Amino acid sequence: MAAPNPPPDLKPRLKEAYDSISTAYEWTQPHHPLRMNYTTELLKLLRKYHAKKDESGNDTPSLAGMHALELGCGSGVPVMEILLAKDMDVIGVDLSGAQIALAAHHFPNHIERHQLVLAEKDMMTLTYPPDEFDAVVALYSICHLPRDEQRVMLERVERWLKPGGMFLMNFPAEEMEGKVKEHWLGQEKGWMYWSAWGEEKMLEIIKELKFEILLQEVISDPGADATFLWVIARKTGGPAQLAKFED
């Protein structure tokens, strides 16, 4: 159902929906290969641009200690799981307290040793200093924002990233001012909202923000009746040369 004007209680309704369906939330399962593949590609690009020197002065692909943010982290599987396995320091943010509780259940040891911080928040309320993160990931999350908020969110991510930092994101490839499903996934409390600028306009916005697009692909999503634009973009500045190793 088309919904050009998002309701004033959009965020509480989204939160209620994700809280309600959290224990039966299997929609992400078919997406895991896509999420894993693109997260792995992000890590490859981070290594190529940000390889550190070992004691012998050689490039090393370690990502340990890099700072990452996931917007709409859900249960943390598989994206945060992959980042944490590479010894990155991660902040996971989600609107749903139930999803955050699942993530806390999955990664108690990482929380205990302060490698992982979880926050139940609307991403539009987040405040971080400039040049804070080496990587930001937002998969199937920014599309829940109204379109005017989406551009603001991308502007903030660009500011939060360090020079040379990278942003993995995806969006519906089809333009839609607003779309609502009353019972998403067949759930009684599964009210859901999406919006999208469409492939061409979104790429235009990303480039206007002075991101360098390293990867862009349009993929038919096996877990949803939709096609998504996947992008890995790099904030200008930072290391200009690729490291001299290959995965």
UniProtKB/TrEMBL annotation:
Species this chain originates from? Thermothielavioides terrestris
- May I ask which residue range the UniProt record assigns to the signal sequence? none
Question: Matching InterPro entries, A to Z?
Answer: Erg6_SMT_methyltransf (IPR050447), Methyltransf_25 (IPR041698), SAM-dependent_MTases_sf (IPR029063)
CDD domains recorded: AdoMet_MTases (cd02440)
Write down the PANTHER family for this protein, in alphabetical order: GERANYL DIPHOSPHATE 2-C-METHYLTRANSFERASE, ZGC:194242
Q: What is this protein called?
A: A5aa6083-812d-42e1-ab7e-3839c7a40701
Annotated SUPFAM superfamilies: S-adenosyl-L-methionine-dependent methyltransferases (SSF53335)
One Pfam family, please name it: Methyltransf_25
User: Which residues are in the Methyltransferase domain?
Assistant: 69-165
